[in-house]
Amino acid sequence: MAHLLEQAAADRAGPGLAVAEDAAAIVRAARAMAQRFRGGGRLMTFGRDGAAADAAHLAVEFTHPVIVGKRALPAISLGDAVWLVPVLGRPQDIAVGIVPGDTDLTVARELGMLTIALTAAGAQPDVDHVLAARSRQPLIVREVHVTIYHLLWELAQVFLESEAPT
Q: pLDDT tens digit string along 57-83?
């Protein structure tokens, strides 16, 4: 049993430390999100299969802040209905795909939306910001994504509070 726990900790150590290495990329994405929110943008999240639940969680983080005094921001989860992006999306909006398919964010990008992909190791979709969990193990990828999108929420709030409109 101890060996299994040690292995689980070792499997998570690299991807967890990689989040710190990717701090600058996460900050850039959060700053871009804050600029879009400041300009009247809305967040649209989606994910395929199990990632649809994470997309819903991310949207709730923005619409119902758990920290008193933080502003609620417009967000909607599309679940796995990526086809709704061209129906609902506007150029000032933000599209976040959690483990998106290769072309899931293409239409959002064509519309001028800010595009962010939370991916697993090796995936490099053509988007504005790729935030990759450096693992191929689905549960570790999910843990890293939860950490990243909580950072995106917190940092977007910080930028909205601290920066003058640009």
A: 999 999 998 888 889 999 999 999 999
Tokens standing for residue 92: 């000032």
Is this structure's pTM higher than 0.85?
yes
Looking at residue 97, its pLDDT comes to 96
Rg value, the chain, Cα: 16
Is there a contact between 78 and 59 (Cβ–Cβ < 8 Å)? no
Within the chain, how many helices (H) and strands (E) appear?
6, 5
Q: How many CA atoms lie within 13 A of 141 on its CB side?
A: 19
- Tell the burial category of 48 from Cβ atoms under 10 Å away from its Cβ (0-12, 13-18, 19+): middle
CA distance 26 to 129: 8
Name the strand (E) or helix (H) holding 57.
helix 51-63
At 98, list the tokens: 């959690």
Give CA 95 to chain center in angstroms. Answer: 9
